[in-house]
Amino acid sequence: MSLTPVEVRHVRFTRRPLGYRRASVDQALLDVADSFEDVWRSRADLADRVEALEGELVRHKELETLLRTTLVSAERAASELKEQAKREAGLVVEEAHAEARAVLREAAAERERLERESRRIRSLLRSALDTVEVADDEEDEDEVAPGPGRWEAA
């Protein structure tokens, strides 16, 4: 049975002619000793609990520090990866633009070559047509104009 300090202060002993009644005092002392022992045990248990909680607190603080460090490292790594990805994407885009310009130059050169070839072929065809027309005209003239031997025979 635990006694509170207020209860201990209000304990009253019955008086006898030469002092207090011994049995009452002995019982009160036993009650106070039991109460004090309970409080002492409880205090020791609480001290043990405080020590365990302080150990857990230290462990949790170390874990928190580790987690913060890890989080900062992860954020830094993510930022670096993002920047690296942006740089790589920029390089890919630049390479694509350069390749596109090269393809356009090649296409323009091919178009120019084909146009030159087309002009050359047209020129050859015109020359051939002109040659054919000249030959036809000469043939037509040969048929229309009497030759030196034709009129004489008649």
Describe this structure in words.
- This protein is mostly helical.
- The protein contains three helices and two strands, in the order αββαα.
- It has helices at 5-9, 22-144, 150-153, and strands at residues 15-16, 19-20.
- It has a two-stranded antiparallel ribbon.
- A hairpin with a 2-residue loop joins strand 1 (15-16) and strand 2 (19-20).
- The longest helix is centred in the middle third of the chain and has 123 residues, at 22-144.
The dominant shape is rod-shaped
Structural class: mainly alpha
Beta-strand fraction estimate: under 5%
Task: Please give the share of residues in helix.
Answer: over 70%
Rg on CA atoms, Å: 60 Å
Question: What tags apply to this protein structure?
Answer:
154 residues, mainly alpha, two-stranded antiparallel sheet, rod-shaped
Structure at a glance:
This protein is mostly helical and 154 residues long.
Write the layout of secondary structure elements.
Blueprint: H1 5-9, E1 15-16, E2 19-20, H2 22-144, H3 150-153
Antiparallel strand pairs: 1-2
